[in-house]
Amino acid sequence: MEIKLRVFRFNPEKDAKPHFDTFIMDVDPNDRVLDLLEYVKADFDSTLALRRSCAHGVCGSDAMRINGRNYLACKVLVKNLKSDTITVEPLLGLRVIKDLIVDMGPFFENFRSVLPYLINDDPLPADGRERLQSPEQRERFEDTTKCILCAACTTSCPSFWADERYVGPAAIVNAHRFIFDSRDTAAAKRLEILNQQIGVWRCRTAFNCTEACPRDIHITTAIAEVKKAINTGKLD
Amino acid sequence: MANIHQFDVIVVGGGGAGLMAALNASKTARTAVISKLYPVRSHTGAAQGGIGAALGNIEEDSPDWHTFDTVKGSDYLGDQDAIEFMCHEAVQAVLDLEHMGLPFTRTADGRIAQRPFGGHTNNVTGKPVRRSCYAADRTGHMILQTLYQQCIKNNTLFYDEFQVMDLLLVDGKAAGVVAVELATGELHVFHAKAVIFATGGHGRIWEITSNAYAYTGDGCAITARRGIPLEDMEFFQFHPTGIFKLGILITEAVRGEGGILFNAKGERFMEKYAPRIKDLASRDVISRAMYLETRAGNDVNGQRFFYLDVTPETVNKYADLDGRTRPDGTPYHVTAAEIMSKIPDIADFCLTYLGVDPTRQPIPVQPTAHYAMGGIPTDKYGRVVVDEKNTVLPGLYAAGEVACVSVHGANRLGTNSLVDLVVFGKHAGLDAAAYANGADFTPLPANPTELVDETIARFQNGSGKERVAKIGSELRAEMFDNVGVFRTQESLEHAVEKVKELRERYLQVKVTDSGKIFNMEMMQTWELGNMLDLALVTAVSALARTESRGGHARDDFPARDDVNWLKHTLAWMNGDQVTLGYKPVVITKYMPKERTY
User: Fold this and answer.
1) Is B283 part of the annotated catalytic residue set?
2) Is B248 in the A-facing interface, judged by CB distances under 8 Å?
3) Does residue B195 share a domain with residue B182?
4) Residues 6+ apart with CB under 8 A from A40
């Protein structure tokens, strides 16, 4: 099928402001949008800059805005978009460096701020084996272990657009992953961090994050569970 | 003038091996990680099915059985001292990961869950054993995330999105690396006492591959240009179950959970090729079986693919026929919901890319280029060894897929890539730090960026008569057709000539982007050069080896030949010339015998 691909372009070494380039191409409906961008580089303009690696939705490199919504370019097929015009733009809310590449610095800073690692200074089991965890305890935080830090959620959030100091859904998801891990001992500390002004209360439950997540994490639910834990002081 | 930095230990690559190396080296030495990707984008994250370790959480197992299975899986080309070391270390390595917070799937009694995987057996009964420790079908993701989390906790220093382009060797010792900062185009010289390469594999030289775009063999190509040999490059694993056309991996865990392979006639064809463990035979065995089935006209629609069926009806039917039981002795019967919980990501891939629900329909699969058994030669401490006598090059290390210890020999068992990167990443990090603490800095060469400057100038001043995309697609097609699952003298000679022609044409490419900021065209042009080097070494090494063993299957020499070929290949590059040498395989306990499953 023939499609019109509109791609956001900005070269900071040449352009005063961004523009769109339009490419008319014949594609397979099963092509990924990432494939289309690779066709652009191969056949039209080899200077197009974007990040990509695994090409099947697990590395998180190629989150971008496609027809007005955040996707991984490798995880959305042409036929899914139900449109013969496809517009590709960089993520919103992060500074555009070149073409589809944005500055991920603030995103990773927010991630780091929630202590995203297991904290447990208790002695290990005397036999040196694994800490025990029941399947039910493990299931409690299963959903939030899936995060690949692609930033599709955080950069779809109106609260983050308004203020990039807001830790954002991805950081809360990663805090949730440890807060509800029965082996972790620092939930209170993380809840204190997220109870601050730039923490969970900035979430206005717009649900954009949940819709944008390429891993189908129930992000809004996770945020609500963190809010509840702050309010009740309980992890149930 | 380039920016100069100084560290005791430099780790190149931020995947599982690199992060393990960094966590361990930074305990005693000033360490930095340089990675062309953000570390969490690394390909370790794509590993699915599990990490093998004889924990014995569900049934009897032993590191010695893991050792023998790995030796046998390697088609006896693996070095047995290193394999024994790895398989014994694996148990503690997995427990260490759990202690770091890795969220393994759990058994009912709260222990790390384990499942069967190809080639892993109870050595007494010969039946599959539950050895693969897993977190659903995203074990690699969990390992990568957990190690990255630990690095954050430890304030590990990262240079993210810096592409290392050259290794500096002075007086036969490592002195550092040269890297370009993608965001600015600036060159940086990292002066170091020890350098650890953990840059992953090079599966992108084949057309159908499970590998990430980033898998362009940078570490092997950089070191080869500096006179380091590459070991066993003819051995590359074709995983039997890639998604048709796309090559995206469908983990062996699907067969571990009971999935069955069928040909176009609806026959469970693995019964013919591996009568005892059938669909859980080693990957090379199944990929070759698919090729033979294709040659017999048994592929689906004449399109060289087969069906992998994990619907509950099929799983339960064949589990009954095989007499498979659960640990408590009851028959192994599954529901769609149970399958979904064990392989959620696989189900997602199938739905996204094929529109197939694997609990209701079979998955079309074909062999996909997956894993480099070969690479930079090292010993079991990750130290790079540069000749037939295993002479160590002081200060230079490699770990993970880029390295060849060799623990995988001619064919890697499933789950052993993750074992490899955790065990050898750790030991490379520890040994590099110990070395650095007892060594002085080797002075940098007068002009450390000379080779990188020349390379960049060549790209900018090329004639522009040739294009990177065209050369790349011709390379991948040639390698898949002629240096693929089966090879012959004719196909390999063709490939050697073709790759030489492409290398000639590559000199004519020009990078049209003249900017410095995120010049991805420049980087991808450079990566293609790496792939062309590794393709040539692979084809030349494969042409010389006139036998079939593991991942290297010669139609014209179908038998393994232990008399002449029980030895590792070493290949030195010098421009278009590849010089071959050989070194013996380390055999300790297990004398080579016929390999049947």
Assistant:
1) yes
2) yes
3) yes
4) A5, A7, A23, A48
